[in-house]
From TrEMBL:
Protein name per Swiss-Prot or TrEMBL: Glycosyltransferase, exosortase A system-associated
Domain Glycosyltransferase subfamily 4-like N-terminal: 17-198
Taxonomic lineage of the native organism: Bacteria, Pseudomonadati, Pseudomonadota, Alphaproteobacteria, Sphingomonadales
Keyword list, A-Z: Transferase
InterPro entries reported in the protein's UniProt record: Glyco_trans_4-like_N (IPR028098), Glycosyltransferase_grp1 (IPR050194), PEP-CTERM/XrtA_GlycosylTrfase (IPR024004)
Pfam families: Glyco_trans_1_4, Glyco_trans_4_4
Key word Endoplasmic reticulum present: no
Length: 424
């Protein structure tokens, strides 16, 4: 049986898009007969990135039937030195796990700190390294408001990424935008495999029925439990690049055309306080509702209250290159998707086919798109069906996992190592 060790920034039980993708990959690989484990860096028990709960510093953790090893300890020092210490600590932990468990492949996932640690350990242990890029983290830092484009830190992060890309045996990216950027940097297209974001339909494909009592408590329905108008929804992290301020500014224009419309924002993050203040000052403040963060296990209850999921991401290098996961989850839940026409959304959504696209950074364009979509109720079933079919055909992890098997076969053959059996 082939063994694959996934090298990660953070994992379950922390909650983020990063951890949910990891879980889906590892579960799908388990189902094909691959023996998988994960190992996380020091940041796991320092709170991780974009998380909703504290981590654990346990040496080994089992979550949802998956085994994760933890890198113990802490690192300190000035920026730059601190990151090199993180890499060294993770590399040592990888070597320790490999001495006990003996994987055949190291599959490192961005950021480049994980990739560099895997390269160090792989070189010492003669193990092939697959490096998966989910985003360029220098661009993610800009999008999160923790970095500045073109700064020294930005350039150093990009340089480290390039070193890992050059040293890895194979490269995986989650979307065409990232792949095309790598090719423009000089990476041979044949070294890059595309493994798009996906949904585990065995867990996320059931559509829940709306809870009338919950809808009434939130002010989303009339007193008799019937809907008062279309509910526009967003579930996720409140980062500036998500454009939720644009969505709030769009609400007066939407309500002028659809008086019963309501906006339900589920989640939290760095922009939470500013968004709540903006909503309170809106002339349609009574139509905008915040829930705070909700347990991931209950997220279907909140999807069930929403008619149209809105993703008004702002135009930026990050949003043009990277495809998000949330629109796919919404399609799997049978929700209609309206999104800004940034590059990452355009890879997932064909305007008028499985969703609607509108110009980014424009409250007026957002309001107009939502109002027109709300008025076309006779078209909703078609959009829902097309969205679900798009996920089933192109983004179901039970199908997409075979892409990794082909990559593993290639790197193992190149090193004359054990080959992966064909997928079940």
């Amino acid at each position: 049986m082939l063994r694959v060790l996934h090298v990660l920034d953070h994992s379950l039980p922390l909650h983020s898009g990063y951890t949910f993708r990891t879980r889906a990959i590892m579960k799908a690989q388990q189902a094909t007969g691959v023996d998988v484990r994960g190992i996380t860096g020091i940041r796991q028990h320092q709170g991780g990135a974009a998380t909703t709960r504290p981590g654990t510093a346990a040496d080994r953790d089992e979550v949802d039937g998956l085994v994760f090893h933890r890198t113990p300890g802490e690192v300190s020092g000035p920026a730059g030195l601190r990151e090199w210490r993180e890499i060294a600590a993770l590399a040592r932990a990888i070597e320790q796990v490999c001495g006990e468990w003996r994987p055949d492949v190291l599959h490192a996932h961005s950021p480049a700190l994980c990739g560099m640690a895997a390269l160090r350990a792989g070189a010492r242990l003669c193990l092939p390294v697959v490096y998966e890029i989910r985003a360029f983290w220098e661009d993610a830092a800009v999008g999160n408001g923790t970095g500045r484009a073109g700064s020294l830190r930005y350039r150093l992060t990009r340089g480290l990424e390039n070193r890992v890309i050059a040293g890895a045996d194979a490269i995986v990216t989650i979307c065409a935008g990232l792949r095309d950027d790598l090719v423009a940097r000089g990476v041979a297209p044949g070294r890059i495999t595309l493994s798009p974001n996906g949904v585990d339909l065995s867990l996320f494909g059931a559509v829940a029925a709306p809870d009338p009592a919950l809808a009434a408590r939130l002010g989303l329905s009339a007193g008799d439990g019937t809907a008062s108008g279309p509910v526009i929804g967003f579930i996720g992290s409140f980062y500036d690049y998500e454009g939720l301020d644009v969505l709030i500014d769009a609400m007066p224009g939407l309500i002028a055309r659809q008086p019963g419309a309501r906006l339900l924002l589920v989640g939290g993050g760095p922009m939470d306080r500013a968004l709540r203040s903006q909503a309170a000052a809106s002339p349609v403040a009574d139509a905008i509702h915040f829930t705070g963060r909700v347990p991931h296990a209950e997220v279907e209850r909140w999807y069930a209250l929403m008619d149209i999921m809105a993703y008004p991401r702002k135009a930026s290098r990050l949003t043009d290159l990277v495809t998000p996961l949330k629109p796919l989850e919404a399609m799997a839940q049978g929700k209609i998707v309206a999104a800004s026409a940034v590059g990452g959304h355009a890879e997932l959504i064909a305007d008028g086919v499985n969703g609607v696209l509108f110009p980014p950074d424009s409250p007026a364009a957002c309001a107009s798109a939502l109002a027109e979509l709300a008025a076309r109720r006779d078209d909703w079933d078609r959009l829902r069906d097309q969205g679900r079919e798009h996920v089933r055909s192109h983004h179901d992890w039970s199908r997409n996992v075979s892409r990794y098997q082909a990559v593993y076969q290639t790197v193992l053959r190149a090193g004359n190592r054990q080959e992966l059996p064909d997928a079940a």
